[in-house]
C-alpha cells in the first residue's frame, strides 16, 4: 500500500536532493529510488529475504529502472521474487521486489514502484556519547541461527553438566576443563588438549595437521593407522573426515607418486608412535581454529576409537568452542580504556552499539541473542535481553542494532527517566 510523505520523509527528501542531482517528481517510484540512494551513500547493509532465508545486502549501483545489490551468500533457488527490509528516518520499510538477474554475488532487482511501511518506530532513539555496556551471548543453539530443538535436547541429554555450565552468564573455565577432561576419558585415557602457539617448532606431520585444521575446521578421524587408505579414501560421514580433500589437491599440484609417498610417510611416522586410531576435533575461538582435542588408541591398548566415539569427541569440541568464545566475549566486551562496546543511540525499544572486532561482528550474525548490562547511573545497571537485527559495516568499526525482548523489573522506568533527561538536553541546545 502506498503512503504519503510524512515529515520524516520530507526531511529525508530534502537531504537527498542536496546530495544528488536527480529531482523527485513526487511519485512513489522516485521516493523509493532516493531511499536506495540513501542506503548507498550511507553504505548501509539491510535484509534481503529470499525463499524465506534472510540475507544481508548492500546497494552496489542504482540504474534507471533497476538496482544492483551485492549479496555475498546468495544461492539461486529458482524464484524470481524477494523482499527487502530496512529502516530510514525512524521508519521501517519493506518492499516486494522482482529479480531481473542473478550473477554470482550480484543480483539485479527492478526498482519497486510502490512504497510500503510495515512499522513506524514509536520511540525515537536518542544519540549518546558517554554510555558503554557489557554483554554476553545467550544460548540458542551451538551453531547459532534458528533454534534447533532436537539437536539442543540431544546435546543437553548427552552432556548435561557441560550444557548447564555454558548456559550460565559467567561459565567457570576451570570447571569446564574438569568436565571436558572427564568426558574425553570416557572415550580414551590417551588424549591431548592442545592450543596453537606462535614460534613453537612442529614436526612435518604436526604442521600438516595444523594447516588442515585451520583451513577446513573439520574433525579428522583415522580408524586404522596401519592402512594408508584410512587417510585418503572417500568418506560419507556428515561430521568425520580424513585427508581425502588434501590428497586430491596434492595429486593435482604435485603428482600422485609424491602424494602417496607423503601420506605413507605420515602413516609410518604415526605407526612408529604406536598409534592405532585417532580423532582430532578442532577447537575454535569465534570461527578461527586455535587448537584441537585429540583422542587416540595405541598398540598397548586393546581397543580402537570407534566411529561413534569419534562423533562424541566432535560434539564435545563444538560445545567447548562455544563455551570458550562466550567467555572471551564476556571478558572482552567492556574495556573502558578502549571503549570497545560503546552505545551509539538508545530508546525504549532498542539500541545501536559499536564494536571493533571483525570476528565478533560475523560471529554475532549467527549467535544474535544477547544479554546486556548497561550502567545508566552509578547506582543502576539496566539488565536487558535482546536480539540483534541490524548489522552495519562501517569500514573500521561495526554497528549492531538490538531490539529488546525482556528486562529486569523497573528497568524500563529508569531507562525512561534516563532518555527524558538526555532528550531534554538535546532539545535545549
Brief overview:
The protein is α+β, with helices and mostly antiparallel strands and 429 residues long.
Keywords:
Beta-Lactamase; six-stranded antiparallel beta barrel; Pnp Oxidase, Chain A; 429 residues; alpha+beta; disordered N terminus; single chain
Supply the CATH class of the largest domain. Answer: Alpha Beta
Number of distinct beta strands: 19
The helix fraction, in percent, is 25-40%
Computed CA radius of gyration, to the nearest angstrom: 26 Å
Number of self-contained structural domains: 3
- Given helix and strand content, the structural type is alpha+beta
CATH topology of the largest domain: Beta-Lactamase
- The stretches of 5 or more residues where confidence is low (pLDDT under 50) are 1-6, 20-27, 335-339
Biggest sheet strand order reads 8-15-16-19-18-17-9
The number of helical segments is 12
What portion of residues belong to β-strands?
A: 25-35%
| Principal-axes shape call | globular
Pfam family, one: PilZ
Domain PilZ: 340-421
Protein name: PilZ domain-containing protein
GO molecular function: cyclic-di-GMP binding
Amino acid at each position: 500500500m502506498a503512503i504519503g510523505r510524512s515529515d520524516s520523509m520530507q526531511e529525508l527528501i530534502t537531504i537527498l536532493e542536496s546530495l544528488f542531482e536527480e529531482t523527485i517528481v513526487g511519485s512513489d517510484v522516485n521516493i523509493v529510488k532516493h531511499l536506495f540512494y540513501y542506503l548507498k551513500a550511507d553504505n548501509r547493509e539491510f535484509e534481503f529475504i529470499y525463499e524465506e532465508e534472510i540475507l544481508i545486502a548492500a546497494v552496489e549501483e542504482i540504474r534507471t529502472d533497476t538496482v544492483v545489490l551485492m549479496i555475498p551468500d546468495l544461492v539461486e533457488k529458482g524464484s524470481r521474487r524477494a523482499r527487502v527490509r530496512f529502516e530510514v528516518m525512524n521508519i521501517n520499510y519493506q518492499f516486494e521486489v522482482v529479480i531481473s538477474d542473478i550473477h554470482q554475488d550480484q543480483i539485479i532487482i527492478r526498482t519497486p514502484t510502490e512504497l510500503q511501511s510495515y512499522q513506524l518506530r514509536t520511540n525515537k532513539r536518542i544519540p549518546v556519547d558517554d554510555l558503554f555496556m557489557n554483554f554476553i551471548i545467550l544460548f540458542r543453539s551451538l551453531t547459532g541461527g534458528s533454534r534447533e530443538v532436537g539437536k539442543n535436547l540431544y546435546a543437553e541429554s548427552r552432556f548435561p553438566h557441560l550444557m548447564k555450565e555454558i548456559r550460565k552468564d559467567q561459565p567457570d573455565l576451570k570447571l569446564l576443563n574438569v568436565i571436558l577432561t572427564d568426558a574425553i576419558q570416557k572415550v580414551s585415557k590417551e588424549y591431548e588438549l592442545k592450543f596453537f602457539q606462535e614460534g613453537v617448532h612442529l614436526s612435518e606431520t604436526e604442521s600438516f595437521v595444523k594447516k588442515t585444521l585451520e583451513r577446513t575446521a573439520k574433525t579428522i578421524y583415522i580408524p586404522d593407522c596401519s592402512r594408508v587408505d584410512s587417510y585418503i579414501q572417500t568418506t560419507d560421514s556428515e561430521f568425520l573426515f580424513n585427508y581425502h580433500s588434501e590428497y586430491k589437491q596434492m595429486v593435482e599440484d604435485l603428482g600422485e607418486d609424491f602424494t602417496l609417498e607423503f601420506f605413507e610417510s605420515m602413516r609410518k611416522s604415526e605407526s612408529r608412535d604406536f598409534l592405532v586410531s585417532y580423532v582430532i576435533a578442532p577447537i575454535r575461538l569465534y570461527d578461527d581454529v586455535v587448537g584441537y582435542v585429540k583422542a587416540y588408541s595405541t598398540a598397548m591398548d586393546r581397543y580402537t576409537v570407534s566411529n561413534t566415539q569419534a562423533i562424541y569427541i566432535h560434539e564435545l569440541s563444538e560445545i567447548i568452542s562455544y563455551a570458550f568464545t562466550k567467555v572471551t566475549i564476556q571478558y572482552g566486551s567492556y574495556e573502558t580504556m578502549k571503549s570497545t562496546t560503546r552505545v551509539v543511540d538508545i530508546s525504549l525499544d532498542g539500541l545501536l552499539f559499536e564494536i571493533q572486532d571483525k570476528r565478533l561482528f560475523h560471529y554475532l550474525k549467527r549467535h544474535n541473542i544477547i544479554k546486556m548490562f548497561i550502567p545508566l547511573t552509578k547506582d543502576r545497571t539496566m539488565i536487558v535481553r535482546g536480539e540483534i537485527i541490524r548489522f552495519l559495516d562501517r569500514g573500521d568499526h561495526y554497528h549492531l542494532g538490538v531490539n529488546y525482548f525482556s528486562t529486569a523489573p523497573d528497568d524500563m522506568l529508569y531507562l525512561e527517566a534516563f532518555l527524558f533527561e538526555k532528550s531534554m538536553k538535546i532539545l535545549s541546545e
